[in-house]
Each structure stands twice: as C-alpha cells, then as structure tokens.
Write a structure and sequence with these properties.
With about 190 residues, the protein is α+β, with helices and mostly antiparallel strands. The chain has three helices and nine strands, in the order αβαββββββαββ.
Length: about 190
C-alpha cells in the first residue's frame, strides 16, 4: 500500500469511529429525555414500565381531587373512560386544572400502584384537549360501546337493543354522539 492510500484509510477509519462514538453518546443522553404517553387503560393493564419517566393523560375524575392542607401535596384520578389511574403530585397545579377537565401528568409509575407526577399540565382553554388524550378517550368509548353491543347481543335477539349515548370529548358539554343500534322489537 502506498503511503497516501494508507493515510486516507486511517482518516476514514478515524471519522467512522468518531461518528459512531458520537451517535452512541447522543443516543445514551437522549434516552433519559424520552417521555412515552400512556392512557390510564394501558397503565392499569400493566403496559407502562415501572420507574421509567412516562406521561399519563385523561380527564380528571370529578370528586377525586384531595388536597393536603399542610402542604402542596395533592392526589387525584384521571380516566380515559375505561380505567382510572391515581396520581400524586406535590407542587402548584396549573390555573386551568379542574375536575372534569383534561390533564397530562409526567412522572413515574410506582410499585405501589400510584403515579408519582413531577409535572402536571392542564388544557389551556375550554375547547382544547391534548391530541393524545382525545384519541385515548375516543378509543376507550369505542371499546366500551363495542363491548356493550356484544353484551346486548348475548342477551338474545328478541330483546330490544338500547341506544348508547357517549359524550364526545372533542365537542362541548351537552353534545352527544349516538353509538349502537336503536332497533326495537314491535309491541
């Protein structure tokens, strides 16, 4: 091998080595900053990893907010319509945080069955809902409607099927979406 070819080969090997080490270090550093979103149904089904930083979102269950009078600690539940996740948080909640409204919490799922939140985000106006929460709510309602349809079909075909009314989380309160069959047996 000529000296100039040998020098080029060493340069190419050096560049590839440095690039590989750089990509490895970047991947390692970013691994800690990845926050995966899970729905309450996924968390309760065991799909969420324990002691890993994740996000959980849904609607704050009415009547579930409990504030500690001596500190900033607060506990509440979020739901996607199919399951509820208890969340504990110590800090000042956003001004828009309220029961019955959408919220996304970032933190860790603990072995005790409580989500320990480091940060709580609330929707910023009356009509906005985080896309992940809206999708999760719609999927949960569809699963619930499908399971109620199959339960009604198991009861017998001679009985009347009831109309299932669901509140669409993307629409303002009072607007319902009908799902299911409205067939009834003539009397």
């Amino acid at each position: 091998m000529k000296a100039i070819r040998k020098q080029r080969l060493y340069l190419v090997i050096f560049i590839i080595s440095v690039a590989s080490v750089g990509v490895g270090l970047l991947t390692y550093a970013l691994r800690e900053n990845i926050n995966l979103f899970y729905t309450p149904s996924q968390v309760m089904a065991g799909d969420a990893p324990e002691d890993a930083r994740i996000r959980v979102g849904g609607m704050v269950v009415r009547g579930s907010v409990v504030r500690n009078a001596a500190s900033l600690a607060v506990t509440f539940d979020v739901t996607d319509g199919a399951a509820q996740v208890p969340i504990s948080y110590s800090g000042i909640l956003p001004d828009m945080f309220a029961e019955g409204e959408a919220a996304v919490a970032t933190g860790r799922w603990t072995a005790t069955g409580v989500f320990a939140a480091d940060e709580v985000l609330a929707k910023h106006d009356e009509e906005y809902m985080p896309p992940e929460v809206a999708d999760a709510m719609l999927q949960a309602h569809e699963r619930k409607a499908a399971s109620s349809e199959s339960d009604k079909s198991k009861l017998g075909e001679g009985k009347a099927a009831e109309k299932v009314m669901l509140v669409n989380p993307l629409n303002p309160p009072g607007s319902e979406t009908s799902v299911g069959s409205t067939n009834s047996v003539p009397e």
